[in-house]
Write a structure and sequence with these properties.
Blueprint (H helix, E strand, L loop, with lengths): L1 H21 L4 H15 L6 E5 H6 L5 H5 L5 E5 L7 E5 L7 E5 L2 E3 L17 E7 L17 E7 L6 E9 L3 E12 L2 E12 L4 E5 L4 E5 L5 E12 L2 E13 L17 E17 L3 E17 L12 E20 L2 E16 L7 E16 L2 E15 L10 E14 L2 E12 L3 H5 L11 E18 L2 E17 L2 E4 L8 E4 L2 E17 L2 E16 L19 E11 L2 E10 L2 E2 L8 E2 L2 E12 L11 E9 L18 E9 L1
Amino acid sequence: MIQRLLYLTFCLVSCIQLCAQNEQTAAADSLQHLGEVEVYGKRPLATAQTLGGADLQALSTTSVADALKYFSGVQIKDYGGLGGLKTINVRSMGAQHVGIYIDGIRITNAQNGTVDLGKFSLSSMESVQLYNANKLDNCQSASEYASGATVYLRTRRPTKDSVALQLRRASFSTFMVKGNAQFARHGWSGFVDGEWTDSRGDYPFRYHSDYEDTVGRRANSDIRYGRIEGALFKGGFSTHLYYYDSERGCPGGIVRRLSDKYVNVGREWDRDFFVQASWQQQFMERHRVKVNAKYTNEYLRYCTDYPENQNTARVDNHYRQEDGYGALCYGFTPWQWLSLSTSYDVRYSKLRADLKHFDNVFRLDQKQVVAAQMNLHGVQMAASLLHQHLHDFTFTHVGAADPLDRWTPALSAAYTLCGVTLRAWYKKIFRAPTLNDLYYTQVGNRNLKPEYTKQWNIGAEWHQTFSARRSTYSVDLQADVYQNKIENRIVCLPLKGTYTWTMMNYGYTSCRGLNATAKGHYAQGPWTCSLLTSLTWQRDLNRTDPDDADTYDKPICYSPELSYTLTGIVGWRTLQLTASFMHVGERMWSYADPEDILEPYNNVDMKLTYSLAPLSRRLKPLTSAGLCLEVCDVLDKQYEHIPRYPMPGRNYRLTLTLGL
């Protein structure tokens, strides 16, 4: 099956390349018009945040999750250590409402609906963007309209040939080696990026509360993984191949007097593979076509079947997931001020598992969208209508869940005056129950309804650049107030006894908040300075049951009221110092006791980088070298994202980079 799909993908890519060659005579005009369309797509109708270029590389980051934590309105859930699962929550909507895209094509997981951001490295990324509304390009896939928030990862387009080798030694017996090769010639460009990491992850901890004081060292927090990916670009054509293989321990929560006893609480093996291709072309100045295709194959094994797990259910489960995706998008610009577009997406997912009484499940997911955008005399408006149809198939007498067929709208408007853009948007969207929600043995519920989200937003932004003699200044400011309402939340409740849980639609929440960001850049001679700030204030309240005094109008668990970040970057010639400060307020984690809260914490990271180009010919063919020292959690505060999962505390990373 895999070989056939790979063969079909190869045939599709060959056809796309042939079409591109046939349009070679119009290549110059096509590239010019594509550029104009990109400018149209970046107009500030949506609430967007971007980290790219020097700012992205200057931060103390190793994975995409580490970069996203600097955005306003974002919560990263991290179970601690290098191998801990890392997911993103935007404006308290939940990880399943956030779509993650690489080069415009979504990373999916039909099994549980979440993406582990720790699997994706920043070494091949050019920029990371977060959109709270639709991105609003004039020719994009229907899937891009189908999330409450979207994260876009754009890979770097090389401009020259180069080879780089990176070696890293870090705390807790961590070693990493990474290689990158890129080329750019004859209109083609591409890269191959590979990484191998091994970490024991046995960091010391102290867990202190009113009832206990536990000191120990984290066990079963190791990880070993290898990642290799490559990409190829030419004009409107791009393709990306990715493979990830890992084995990691699942350390479990801190338990008084037992934290060093259970060595093998659980282990997890992952093998993820995908190959994707995209082609877009401009025709006759007014027409634009884009085709997307992707195949994904994922394997997951989770095991807790160890003799020392006396109080843990013993399991050894294997999951295999396959996913095929295709999209056809069309954009039409009848006048310079108006753009119309439509898209049809189809996705076929299959999940198999060796759980007892588990059905092999097949899901057919179809999406269609029609959208319009207008820009006239400083007034910008956009509207879209999305249709989603999901149909599951099983082969048992129990049967599959009922098909899901829904229409959802989105509206945006903006006006620019004296350099200030005022914007407002509304979006209604839902997330369908995942295959685990519906079919997981003894827990799944085939009668689940979709979880709806309604979002309102009003905001403003201002950008300005100044130049004086040899100095350059730039300032970017934006702020948004918003309200989200979520209906029919999908939660797991113990309805059949203490040890038997069931997925249910239970819950109504209302979230009101403020997001604000500010960026400032200054450059004069050999000096460069940057200041990046973000602020989130929100009240995320439970409005489910007015008769339940213990939960009604109380904050949602894990949702802080106040959080902010402050990052400063100072560079002089080839020396650069980065310091970042992050504050997260207190969060409830249980309604059982008002005192069940996670304490507020402050986190400080620092990074010092020195790079040079060899002056001596004796160092040829070495063209560049760099040394980087990172100190994470300088204050050594072992804060918690999840109760009883303390973070590693102060740790160090030393990285040597050699370029050829």
